[in-house]
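Question (not urgent): is this output format expected?
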Amino acid sequence: MAQNSDMKVVIIGGGIVGLSSAYYLSESGHEVTVIDKTDISSNCSYGNAGYVCPSHFVPLATPGIVKQGLKWMWNSKSPFYVQPRLNLSLIDWGLKFMRSATPEHVERSAIPLRDIAILSQKMYEDWTRLPQFQFAYEHKGLLEIFQTDKGGDHAKHVMHRAHELGLEDTVLLDAAELQALEPQTTIEAKGAVWFKCDAHLYPNKLMEQLIADLKNKGVHFILNDEVIGFEKSQQQVNKVKTTKQVIDADSVVIAAGSWSRELSALLQLKIPLMPGRGYSVTLEDSPHRLNYPSVLIEGRVALTPMDGNKIRFGGTMEITSTKTPPRYQRVQGILDAVKRYYPQFDVPMPAPEHIWYGYRPCSADGLPYLGRTQQWKNVVMATGHAMVGLSLGAGTGKLVSEIVNETSLSMDIAAFKPERFG
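Got this back:
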C-alpha cells in the first residue's frame, strides 16, 4: 500500500493503545477517527496499576500457571481463575495457552517484551516534557516483595534474568533494606527485588489529558457506537460500518482490547483472545503511606502510590466472559493479601460502586498481537496486551504509526505477528 501523508485512518478502540496510535498517526498528518462502543471514561486503561515496567518481561503463559490455575479454580478469592464453561473459543484459547506455557516460550519472549516496554517508557518520558501532559509520572522503580523461600528463589532468578537482558539496575534487598525504603509502615517479608528501571503514573490523568490533546489536534471521536461490519474489496477494507453510520477508511487499526476477537471475526480473522477480568480499589487521602509501587509475589497483588495522595490496590486474572457479573469476593482476596504484607493497612471492603473492574485482552501466549494482517493489506492489529496494556501503550501506538506509514520500525515485532496461531 503506497504511503500517503493524509490517509483516513479509523481506529477501533479508545483505550491507551488506540489513543496512543491516534496520537502518533495524527502527528504524522493523517485524518484520524476513533470509534468505541463506550464513552471511554472507565476502560482498562483507567483502573490498572499504572506501571510502565520493562521488568515485566515474563509473559502470562508460563510453566506452572496452568497447574496453579487448576488448583485455584474452586477458590472464589484466588488471584488466577478460569471460569469453566462450554465455549469453543475458550477451549481453543486454553489449548493454545497450555501449549505456549513452556520454558522455551518464556525465554524467547523476554527480549521483545523488554524492547517494547523500553520503547514505551521512552515515549511516555517524551510526553512528560510537553505542557499538555502532567500525569504524575515518577521513575523510581518497582518492588517485587516475597514472603517465602520459594518466592525468594523466584526473585533471584528474575533478577539474574534482568541482568542478562541489560536491566542491570535491578537489586535484591533483604528484609531490613526493604523496610528502610518504607519507614512509615511495617512490611512482613523476607525481601524484595527492586527494579529501578520501572516507572509509574496516574492512569486517569493520562487518559483524560490524552483525550483532550487528541480533540485539540482534530481527532474525531465516535463514542457509544459499535462496529458491526466492514465493506471490503481486493484485500482492502474500504468502509467501517457502525450501528449508526458508515465511515470511509484508507487504513484500519483494531485496538479494541477484549472485544478484538469478535471484531476480527467480522474480517474472517481468527485471533485467540480471552477477556481477563481484573479489579482495583483506589484510596484517596489514605492514612496509609507508600513510597514505592510494589507487587506481592505470593499474593499476586499490585500496590501503587499515585498522584500524591492516592494508593491503588489491584489484582486477579479472571478468564471469563464480558457478560459474567463481577465477583466482588475477589476484591476481599486482594485486600487480605495486602494485609498479610502490610499488617497496618486496614482497608475495609468497599461498596460495589467504589470498586473498579475491567477486562484485559489476553492472547493465547501472553504476547500482544501487533502488525499488519496478511488477509487485509490495510488492517493493523494492536491488541492482546493482557496486564501490561498501559505499560506498552505509548510504544505500541508509536509502532502502529510506523506500520501504517510504512517507515522503519523502532524494534523487531516478528514475535507479535497477529496470525502466528495460523
